[in-house]
Amino acid sequence: MRLTYDPEANAAYIQLRSGRQHIRTITVTPDCNVDIAADGRVFGIELLNAKKQLSMGTVKKMVVENQQNGKKAQLRLPF
Question: 73 - beta bridge partners?
Fold first, then answer.
């Protein structure tokens, strides 16, 4: 998984799968698109107006949690 942020476009992309694939994009809301791979699985999620959606003004970290075993990892956001 990879999270990228483009400050010029104020867009974030959460890529869930690797490699180049043929995808189709579904617009969920005006600020959220979901890319679907040819096999029907989610490839990635695009967040437009990302600073507002991710509350990046005050949040400087991301917590990744495995809900099955309760383990958590904390990542410092570089923006």
Answer: 64
